[in-house]
Design a protein that fits this description.
About 35% of the residues lie in helices and about 15% in strands. It is an alpha/beta fold. Helix 18 packs across helix 19 (about 565-580) and helix 27 (about 755-765) runs parallel beside helix 29. It comes from Dreissena polymorpha (Zebra mussel). This is NACHT domain-containing protein. GO terms for molecular function: ATP binding. It holds the Pfam family DUF4559.
Length: about 1300
């Protein structure tokens, strides 16, 4: 019997009621289909172990799950802690990979059931809230079922493509429209649906249930379609209507959705309808109406989902817009600087880069490490995501192109196949980029007037991808995303950003979620304001790793398809070889330029590897675009610069070039540094006429950009290096500007002499006289900046090439390539490392008299000689006569002489009167480094000297009166009085230096002394050295070394190792001692009773106990023969003394007599012996027990013992903590008797392993003088997979009075480190 569904007086309200029923019908029609496919999903993700909970699998903290409201307490990980499970972790990863938006709702799911219940897998694709207790698909609601179809990509193959096109979360997606029907019905404010909307609902749902892939022949779906038709045409029976209402109510009730209540108007409307329904279908229907009311209330309670839905839609929309923006802009790069408009997809021309990780040593030295081949190496260190990565590279090395490739990879990371990685051998792990929900790419050269990164993001990204009315909401969304999702911020071109701070401000950007990648030229990263601690990962880009692959890619873009590509690549390779341009691959920009000009036939004029010639070709090509007239410079007229000699398109445009180069110079050396690279059009007009501006724009030398919301346009040169080339050209023809303008610029901006690195290099190739003059000014600035080579506190040399030396070497090589003379470049700080040694040596010859520091770490295939003028003159005479004989009498002997001469190099230091630092480190032991004894006689200003593996017999330091740092290691022989007169000597390190009876009496300023092997001191060598703070002497000769430490009252760290005699009570006066290490064998002198008796150690401890500061890890080492075997056992004691007469002694298992006797009768109030890693094994029980009982002031005692011993405790004790590895019930009884016998009240904590805890508890409760405040039983589980034990967990609290003092003692004791 059919019944009407018109149970409400208002038609639209009745429509809404029918829509509710229709949604439940549709859900029931999809239920069997979803259940079947979830079984397939379970098979696809794999089988879990069935033991791990979701808390076990989620790290703490995890965004969206963990909420630490109190310190160290997580509201999510309450009963289970994170752990590793290979099978479950794999299932978890597979679930995540099937989630369309990589955000499974983990809180909903019970991981223990993943192995058997497909629904628990399906719950991961439900909305995050309200579904944790829903036990099946049948018990879920319409929104839950549709969410699974949308979020789980497995269902893509089960539905027609039309259902998911366009893909979610696009609002036009048919499946998204279906979900929106459910939301519109649930979230309605007036419970009304129009006729048109209702009919559209029926049509949409019925069409979806008839999807031809799976649903068309699904029995439940077919039945649902029939019911929808009956409901639409009022053909439902009363019985069917009642069942549907009942099912709808049960579904909504079980869903447990949370939200706002119905409005009063909706309640009134529904009440009226329910009254009508009661009259229509008799009293039995009243229950159904009540259930309808409850169902509607439940539906309305989901209103709070709307905010989350809006956020998710906003995130998806922003993600789509950003990727579209990047694909249209960043993903395209110019093929070459010749024609910026001729751009290509980055993957069409990109070749694998040559990138190395740079290690920042403790002293700041940056050394090249392994090559970086993966994105993971870019952002991870020790498997931890690093927050700040810097990529440095010279001009044109490909930094901007690299980050464009990275952004492009991120945009396409979810693509099934990517063209960008097909031909690459490096950086193919694009899945690493999935870690970043968003990538925000900003060009710092385009944000020169902004200081804050979030403002740059708004200007460069939001304002360009959103309408003005949407921009503010989008900006707020970005800020919210940064707080919840892992994002990557790329700052490209730090060296082109002129902000007052060294880097842009990250204000408003959470540190926990935002990773920053910054690109820059190397000189910028030498700024002392960028601390080493602010660089988590430093990478160095050296161009491309496969030049031939790069050649092929670029040529493919330039040539017609009919050309033979392989043959053309071969021809170009030969061109590079014949012109000595193979090294051009370090600059992809210049490499592409050469390819383009070669294709056009221009590059054949190159005569060598000159940068000036390369940029001349670039300048010519650009000039040709604006004015193709050809004209040559005649030999009769003076050339502006040599590199223009064979040009054809420059002369007709010479006036324009002069004017543009003046503008380039003026902007580079502008007092307004923010306008040095990007400047406004008004400022440009001060230098260029309208005609010249038109030429610059047509040629491509300059470009103009429209600024957002600004009237004024911004201008810049096609590339910074082009501007620097033109600026150098202007200087070469106007040398007077060096003193009139540049000198003042360098004085005003003390660090700017490195900014003009490239200008200087170009100038060396154009006008070497001007470059010589400019180098003098730059060298003055470099000297003023200081150049600390040696960091003595860390006991190693910090040898690194300065940025200015690299600048001068590059300029020297450019001058050589252009054959400009005379070269006399100024440089005062020299460092010989692996690169360009021969060039540095030639520059040294020009600057011997002005050198301030000289460091030699590597001189390939050469024997080195350091000498004074006399020695070098004698050697030169010998060499000259040998060379003369070889020239006049060529033959085998002459050839041998020539080879000997060529295999050696000498440094004549006689003219280096300004030398302040000298460090020679020979790493290649195949070649010798020899220093003449008198080589340093003329170095009166020398302050720091370091020689390692340098042979010198009888080194004369008598004239080095200003010497402050001296480090000599291996192969040096000193006379006993070698250091006499060095009154300013502050740091001294001698390792494997031969000297017997070294005198230090005149070194009154000495603060740090390290003597290792080889050196013996005069018995009174340290007498009078009151400024000594650090002493480290390692002595292993057969005869004993006696030292007098009585004057060393300010020593803070003292380390003595080997056969050293320390006079009794020598350490007593060291009131400032913080670290003491005494290491020797038992048979040696230090700890032998007759020379270092226990009374000395006792006096030392007594003194330290009264100190006004803590003394940490005072180490004492001894070795003594075991009684039961002929071997030595090493005994180590680490003593830490705190304030208030508190001492902790950590032994490696043994207590030796000297220490036991030394403790006797000391005024110790708190004593801790042993730790959790090493229990205290008492070998000398009598002396130890006597010493323990003699501590009459002892109030607190903590000990970790392997077994029970009969301890005798002082009556002063108030707190005792004892830990036993083994303790029987009878021994516990005896221990409690002894503790009870003490006169005063005693708080005692005892821990031991036992299975008799019930018996022990009852016995302790029965004692009269014992009150049990706490009796706890702990368990420790074993991790079978890893063979380790987990943390202790409390099984039960048998007795607990609420006191917590014992917990504090436990924590303090167990927090101690194992030694």
């Amino acid at each position: 019997m059919a019944t009407t569904t018109k149970i409400f007086t208002e038609k639209e309200t009745n429509n809404w009621f029918k829509a509710c029923i229709a949604l439940n019908m549709a859900k029931e029609g999809l239920t069997n289909f979803v259940v079947t496919e979830l079984k397939n999903v379970l098979n696809a993700v794999g089988i879990s172990c069935g033991q791990c909970s979701i808390e076990n699998l989620m790290p703490c903290p995890t965004q969206g799950l963990c909420n630490k409201r109190k310190p160290y307490k997580c509201t999510f990980h309450t009963s289970h802690q994170p752990k590793s499970c290979q099978s479950c972790d794999q299932v978890k990863q597979n679930i995540k990979s099937l989630h369309r938006f990589n955000g499974p709702s983990w809180r909903n799911s019970k991981a223990e059931r993943w192995a058997t219940d497909p629904w628990e897998i399906g719950k991961c694709y439900l909305p995050p809230d309200g579904y944790s207790d829903v036990s099946s698909v049948h018990d879920s609601d319409f929104n839950g079922v549709i969410s699974i179809l949308l979020n789980c990509t497995h269902f893509q193959a089960c539905l027609s493509p039309a259902c998911l096109s366009p893909p979610p979360p696009d609002k036009q997606c048919p499946l998204e429209k279906i979900r929106q029907i459910g939301r519109d019905v649930r979230h309605t404010a007036d419970c009304k649906v129009t006729d048109a909307d209702l009919q559209d609902y029926f049509k949409t749902l019925a069409t979806f249930l008839a999807d031809p892939i799976c649903l068309l022949h699904e029995t439940s779906a077919t039945d649902a379609r029939r019911k929808l038709s009956d409901l639409q045409n009022d053909r439902l029976s009363l019985t069917e209507l009642g069942e549907l209402l009942k099912e709808a109510n049960q579904t909504i009730t079980r869903a447990k959705e949370v939200g706002e209540r119905l409005s009063k108007e909706a309640e009134r409307t529904l009440t009226e309808g329910l009254d009508t329904l009661e009259a229509t279908i008799q009293a039995g229907v009243q229950r159904v109406q009540s259930e309808i009311m409850d169902s509607i209330v439940r539906i309305k309670q989901a209103a709070n989902e709307k905010g989350q839905d809006d956020f998710e839609r906003g995130v998806a929309d922003l993600l789509r817009r950003l990727k579209d923006h990047y694909r249209d802009t960043v993903s395209f790069v110019p093929l070459s600087t010749l024609d910026p408009s001729h751009d290509k997809q980055v993957h069409d021309i990109y070749a694998s880069p040559k990138i190395h990780r740079m290690k920042i040593e403790n002293g700041g030295r940056r050394t090249k490490q392994e090559q970086v081949l993966t994105y993971k190496d870019f952002f991870y260190r020790d498997n931890q995501l690093s927050r700040r990565t810097y990529l440095q590279g010279d001009a044109g090395s490909g930094k901007t192109t690299f980050v464009a490739k990275l952004v492009n990879d991120w945009c396409n990371v979810q693509a099934s196949s990517m063209n960008s990685t097909k031909e690459q051998t490096a950086l193919v792990d694009v899945d690493t980029l999935q870690k970043f929900k968003f990538v925000f790419f900003i060009s710092l050269r385009d944000s020169r007037n902004q200081a804050c990164v979030v403002q740059m993001i708004k200007t460069q990204l939001i304002d360009k991808t959103f309408a003005d009315s949407e921009a503010e909401d989008a900006y707020k969304l970005v800020l919210q995303i940064m707080k919840t999702s892992t994002c990557l911020i790329i700052q490209d071109g730090l060296d082109e950003w002129p902000g007052e701070d060294v880097v842009p401000s990250m204000a408003g950007i959470p540190k926990d979620h935002c990773i920053v990648l910054t690109t820059s030229r190397p000189w910028k990263l030498t700024d002392e304001r960028i601390r080493n601690s602010q660089i988590d990962i430093l990478l160095d880009l050296e161009g491309i790793s496969d030049p031939e692959a790069f050649n092929e890619k670029v040529l493919r873009c330039l040539l017609h398809e009919s050309n033979d590509l392989k043959e053309t690549v071969k021809q170009f390779k030969e061109f590079l070889r014949s012109h000595n341009l193979q090294s051009i691959s370090v600059s992809p920009m210049l490499h592409a330029l050469i390819i383009c000009t070669w294709v056009e036939g221009i590059a054949e004029r190159l005569s060598g590897s000159s940068l000036c010639e390369l940029y001349t070709i670039l300048l010519e090509s650009l000039c040709k675009k604006a004015n193709p007239l050809i004209s040559h410079f005649n030999r009769s007229e003076p050339l502006p610069v040599n590199c223009f000699s064979r040009s054809r398109y420059i002369k007709p445009n010479m006036q324009h070039i002069h004017d543009i180069s003046k503008a380039a110079f003026s902007f580079v050396f502008s007092n307004e540094r923010e306008m040095s690279i990007v400047f406004n059009e008004i400022k440009l007009s001060e230098y260029l006429s309208d005609n010249t501006q038109e030429f610059a724009l047509k040629s491509g030398l300059l470009s103009i950009r429209k600024r957002t919301n600004r009237i004024d346009n911004t201008c810049s040169f096609v590339h910074k290096s082009v501007q620097e080339f033109l600026a150098a050209f202007y200087i070469s023809g106007h040398v007077d500007v060096i003193n009139s303008i540049i000198s003042g610029y360098l004085e005003r901006h003390h660090d700017s002499y490195l900014d003009i690195f490239q200008v200087f290099v170009f100038l060396c190739g154009m006008n070497i006289t001007a470059a010589n003059e400019l180098s003098e000014l730059m060298n003055v600035q470099d000297i003023a900046q200081g150049h600390e080579v040696h960091n003595f506190d860390e006991d190693y040399f910090l040898l690194r090439e300065s940025s200015f030396q690299r600048c001068v070497v590059s300029g020297y090589k450019e001058a050589e390539a252009n054959k400009t003379t005379p070269v006399h470049l100024h440089l005062s700080h020299f460092c010989f490392l692996d690169d360009h040694v021969e060039d540095v040596y030639r520059i040294w010859a020009m600057n011997t008299s002005r050198a301030r520091s000289l460091s030699v770490c590597h001189f390939p295939n050469k024997h080195l000689i350091l000498c004074s003028q006399d020695a070098s003159s004698a050697r030169w005479k010998g060499l000259r006569s040998s060379l003369t004989r070889a020239r006049d009498n060529p033959g085998p002997s002459a050839s041998k002489t020539q080879r000997e001469v060529n295999s050696s190099a000498s440094f004549n230091l006689s003219l280096s009167h300004h030398l302040e630092q000298l460090n020679i480190v020979q790493l290649n032991l195949k070649y010798n480094v020899t220093m003449q004894p008198n080589a340093l006689v003329g170095l009166k200003n020398l302050k720091s000297l370091g020689l390692i593996f340098v042979k010198c017999k009888g080194l004369d330091l008598s004239r080095c009166n200003k010497l402050e740092h001296l480090c000599l290691e291996i192969d040096v022989i000193l006379k006993p009085n070698a250091l006499v007169g060095l009154k300013k000597l502050n740091h001294l390190k001698l390792t494997n230096v031969l000297c017997k009876g070294l005198a230090l009496s005149s070194c009154h300023n000495l603060e740090r002394l390290i003597l290792e092997y080889g050196v013996t001191l005069h018995p009174n060598a340290l007498v009078g050295l009151k400024n000594l703070k650090y002493i480290n002497i390692r002595y292993f000769k057969s005869e004993a070394l006696a030292i007098d430490l009585s004057s060393c009252v300010n020593v803070e760290e003292l380390k003595l190792t080997g056969g050293i005699i320390v006079r009794p009570n020598a350490l007593i006066g060291m009131k400032k001692l913080k670290l003491l290490t005494l290491g020797c064998t038992y048979e040696s002198i230090t700890l032998k009773r007759e020379t270092f008796p226990s009374v000395c150690l006792r006096n030392l401890l007594s003194t330290l106990l009264t100190s006004d500061h803590e003394v940490k890890n005072c180490g004492i080492t001894s070795s003594e023969q075991c009684a039961f075997r002929r071997s030595l056992k090493c005994v180590y004691a680490a003593i830490t003394i705190y304030l208030n007469n508190t001492i902790r002694i950590t032994l490696n298992g043994y207590a030796f007599p000297v220490l036991c006797e030394a403790m006797h009768g000391l005024r110790i109030k708190s004593l801790s012996l042993g730790n959790i890693c090493e229990s205290l094994r008492i070998q000398h029980g009598t002396s130890f027990l006597q010493s323990l009982r003699s501590l009459s002031l002892l109030e607190t005692l903590t000990m970790h013992l392997p077994t029970y011993i009969d301890i005798q405790l002082p009556q002063s004790l108030k707190h005792v903590t004892l830990f036993y590895n083994i303790l029987s019930s009878s021994q516990l009884r005896d221990l409690v008797n002894k503790l009870s016998a003490l006169s005063g009240p005693l708080d005692c904590r005892i821990e031991f392993p036992t299975e008799e805890y019930i018996l022990i508890k009852e016995e302790l409760k029965a004692r009269e003088r014992v009150k049990v405040k706490r009796f706890r039983i702990y368990d420790r589980s074993v991790d079978i997979d890893h063979g380790t034990t987990s943390a202790w967990s409390l099984r039960c609290d048998v007795v607990d009075d609420g006191g917590h003092s014992a917990e504090i003692a436990y924590a303090e004791f167990y927090d101690n480190k194992c030694l």
